[in-house]
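Hi R.,

Quick one: here's the Aspartyl/glutamyl-tRNA(Asn/Gln) amidotransferase subunit C sequence you asked about.
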Amino acid sequence: MSEISRDEVAHLARLSRLDLTEDELTHYAAQIDGIVETVAAVREVDTTGVEPLSHPTQNVDGAVSVMREDVPQESLTAEQALDQAPKQAQQRFQVPRILGE
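And here's the predicted structure, written out as tokens:
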């Protein structure tokens, strides 16, 4: 059963001042309907006992960390880092000046 009709998409297009063809209206109506069906399926998931999160990466203890664990490892030498640079000077990347200094 379709949730979004082609006429509703046409109305939204008019409000948005979009000039959509008949094929586009039909195409977008089907896409929006698919999105609505997906959201409806998510609503059916049993979330009993699941505490809401303040952030998608919130840990069980409530801490939020979006970074990986900081583990020391070998890094590139200056020579390795610069070996593909188009220009270099004094062991640094040389780039064109962009300010009038």
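The domain at 6-43 is CATH 1.10.20 (Histone, subunit A).

Cheers,
M.
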